[in-house]
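Structural prep section.
Before we set up the soaks we want a predicted structure of the protein with cobalamin in place, mainly to decide which crystallisation condition to try first. Input record follows.
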Amino acid sequence: MSEKALENLKSIVLDFDIDNAEKVAKEAISQKVNPMEAAKVLTDAIREIGDGFEKGDYFLPDLVCAAEVLKKAIPVITEEIQKQGKKSGSLGKVVIGTVFGDIHSIGKGMVATLLYAAGFEVIDLGINVRSEAFLDAVKEHRPDIIAMSALLTTTAMEQKNVIEGLKKEKLRDKVKVIIGGSPINQEFADSIGADGYGATAPDGVKVAKSLLGIK
Ligand code: B12
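Run finished without errors. Recording the tokens verbatim:
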């Protein structure tokens, strides 16, 4: 039963079926599909579209439509993740955003949801966030962690700009920095002086907890 529901979730992305996205996601949840598994199926499927785009098999409107499918399906899935989560907000405070020049929102949103579900207080600055806005948020909210997402090789360096800004403002030792996004890896994170990197949203939660010494 849940195999079929997962297949249906994959199909709505690959068929760009925006109209049925929410309904299929709701069906999956009502059939007790693990919401984390559902999120992974949707993520893998949209990456397949992304790979096809790179090869020239798909075009920008296809990326836009696939993203619209996820925008309808993901809230249903994340609502369930939040329901199952602790929501205590007591593990610590995280400021999160997608860096300047980058409008990819879906992965950042998933990281924010899982951090929240794990018990972090999350302040989401949104997309296309200038480094000054990250720095202002650190001054205003005094978070334990800044989490940055970058999906483009051209915007990945913005994460370094924020870290350099923190150093200039003498805030670097006040906050941990974690980064992620498809072009990011551990080597890049080390090279720009980030404290942690997560390949997936669940990894992000693990890294955040471990940086704050939470078991
Ligand atoms: C959907 C999509 C879009 C949508 C975004 C809609 C939206 N609201 O987000 C639209 C159509 C707008 C778009 C636009 C563009 N896109 Co685009 N897009 C994608 C696509 C297909 C999927 C991204 C996605 O949502 N994935 C699903 C989520 C769940 O996965 P994720 O973002 O990777 O996040 C996961 C992890 O990376 C991690 N993570 C993410 N952030 C963080 C942060 C932290 C702290 C941690 C710990 C973890 C973490 O956890 C997440 C969940 O597990 C990717 C393909 C790909 N392989 O990534 C291309 C892709 C990223 N796009 C690409 C390009 C080129 C573009 C455009 C430049 C196209 C154009 N010519 O205009 C524009 C750029 C616009 C801009 N200035 O930002 C390229 C980037 C190539 C590169 N290396 O630079 C990709 C890789 C496609 C490709 N293969 O060519 N895109």
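Observations: The beta strands are 93-98, 121-124, 145-149, 176-180, 196-197.
Flagged for discussion at group meeting.
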